[in-house]
């Protein structure tokens, strides 16, 4: 028997990430090739944005996706989020050259307060939310705090792009395939303070740390390359990453929904206190997923260098959260 459709809201649907994301959701890449979906697309009320959205929807129609069971356009989150199973919150102002993601905090904080409240009011009680709009961790924190009637654990922030970036850098360094790398982590904030950590990573039963055996490369090349990749893309493209960001959003929700078969992935999630990260801080952790739930990988050793890096990115998140307290 065919599965009942799941309702997916996407905000910023006429933006650059939206243009790479919507087609893949409708194609079954996110929730499975046997899972019908209904798209509920939100854009700002501005006439130009709504017109652009109608054009994107014409193109989606023209793909005749067999799994697409419905699609609606919205300018109000209270209708866009009605009865949804998943929310992918992309819509926000992106940064330009010379800006840090946290410079977007005040511009984007209002959006996530309003959207958190709308989710609280009208979404399914089990709705799962991924925040992509920057600064992603703190926006996810704001949305979570604005939705007190929904389970806090269902609010997440996207660190999967950082995880995928780190995988590619390690594959290039070791000359091995991306698909063979296991047990990578990106701790903390989606910002240059993040800590991509390959101390536990393995390829075909061999330790990646031992294969690379070069702490200078780790500190002076790997960490800054992954941490500043977003800025490198803005510098090269004149626009922030879009297709790779959409791909990471698909990976994040796909794995949350379909499970990881024991594989570790990185998700920005509200801390439960694990690894001495204070409760509720929206922090990148290693997780495995099963039956629609994520679980933090426990029991990993935290050495002095790692603790220093984990605290550095934690301090930035704590400061960001302090900075938005007055809005909550
Ligand atoms: P974009 O400017 O091309 O598109 C954003 C869209 O959002 C626009 O169409 C705009 O009209 C819409 N929008 C703005 N406010 C909205 C609101 N309140 N409700 C609904 N829609 C709204 O930007 P983009 O390149 O698609 O990037 C979107 C966001 O994603 C930015 O904040 C960017 O920094 C972030 N981003 C995050 C990651 C990550 O890894 N977490 C990666 C890439 C980009
Ligand atoms: C990225 O990492 O590519 C995005 O967060 C966009 C940005 O501002 O860097």
Structure description:
The chain is α/β, with parallel strands linked by helices. Helices cover 42% and strands 19% of the residues. The protein starts with 5 loop residues before the first strand and ends with a helix. Helix 5 (136-145) links the parallel strand 5 (128-131) and strand 6 (155-157). The strands form 4 sheets. It has a 6-stranded parallel β-sheet with strand order 3-2-1-4-5-6, sandwiched between helices. It has a 3-stranded antiparallel β-sheet with strand order 7-10-11. Helix 4 (105-122) packs parallel to helix 5 (136-145) and helix 6 crosses helix 8. The structure holds nicotinamide-adenine-dinucleotide and (2S)-2-hydroxybutanedioic acid (LMR). The site of (2S)-2-hydroxybutanedioic acid has 11 residues, from helix 9.
Count of individual domains: 2
User: Tell me, what is the CATH class of the largest domain?
Assistant: Alpha Beta
Note the overall shape: globular
Order of helices and strands: EHEHEHEHEHEHEEEEEHHHHEEEH
Radius of gyration: 19 Å
The overall strand count is: 14
Note the beta-strand portion: 15-25%
- What would CATH call the architecture of the largest domain? Alpha-Beta Complex
Q: Which ligands, by name, code or SMILES, are bound?
A: nicotinamide-adenine-dinucleotide, (2S)-2-hydroxybutanedioic acid
Strand order of the largest sheet: 3-2-1-4-5-6
The profile of the biggest β sheet is: 6 strands, parallel
- Residue share in helix: 40-55%
The structural class is: alpha/beta
Mean pLDDT: 96
Count of DSSP-assigned helices: 11
State the end-to-end CA separation: 45 Å
List the uncertain runs: none
- Name the CATH superfamily assignment of the largest domain: Lactate dehydrogenase/glycoside hydrolase, family 4, C-terminal
Domain Lactate/malate dehydrogenase N-terminal: 7-155
Function: Catalyzes the reversible oxidation of malate to oxaloacetate.
Pfam family, one: Ldh_1_N
Catalytic activity: (S)-malate + NAD(+) = oxaloacetate + NADH + H(+)
């Amino acid at each position: 028997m065919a599965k009942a459709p799941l309702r997916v809201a996407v905000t910023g649907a006429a933006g650059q990430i939206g243009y790479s994301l919507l087609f893949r959701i409708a194609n079954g890449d996110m929730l499975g090739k046997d899972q019908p979906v209904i798209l509920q697309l939100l854009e700002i009320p501005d006439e130009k944005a709504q017109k652009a959205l109608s054009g994107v929807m014409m193109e989606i129609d023209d793909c005749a996706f067999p799994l697409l069971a419905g699609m609606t356009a919205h300018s109000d989150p209270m209708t866009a989020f009605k009865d949804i199973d998943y929310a992918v919150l992309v819509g926000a102002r992106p940064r330009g050259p010379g800006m840090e993601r946290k410079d977007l905090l005040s511009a984007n904080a209002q959006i996530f307060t309003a959207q958190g409240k709308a989710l609280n009011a009208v979404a399914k009680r089990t709705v799962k939310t991924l925040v992509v709009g920057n600064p992603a961790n703190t926006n996810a924190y704001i949305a979570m705090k604005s939705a007190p009637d929904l389970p806090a654990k269902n609010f997440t922030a996207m660190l999967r792009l950082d995880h995928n970036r780190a995988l590619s850098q390690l594959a290039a360094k070791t000359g091995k395939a991306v698909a063979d790398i296991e047990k990578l982590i990106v701790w903390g904030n989606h910002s240059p303070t993040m800590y991509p950590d390959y101390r536990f990573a393995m390829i075909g039963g061999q330790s990646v740390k031992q294969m690379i055996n070069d702490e200078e490369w780790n500190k002076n090349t790997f960490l800054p390359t992954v941490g500043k990749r977003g800025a490198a893309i803005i510098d090269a493209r004149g626009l922030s990453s879009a297709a790779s960001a959409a791909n990471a959003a698909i990976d994040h929700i796909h794995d949350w929904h379909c499970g990881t078969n024991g594989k570790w992935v990185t998700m920005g999630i509200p801390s439960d206190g694990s690894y001495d990260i204070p409760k509720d801080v929206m922090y990148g952790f290693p997780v495995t997923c099963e039956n629609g739930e994520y679980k933090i990988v426990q029991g990993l050793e935290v050495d002095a260098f790692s603790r220093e890096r984990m605290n550095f990115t934690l301090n930035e998140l704590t400061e960001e959260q302090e900075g938005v307290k007055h809005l909550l």
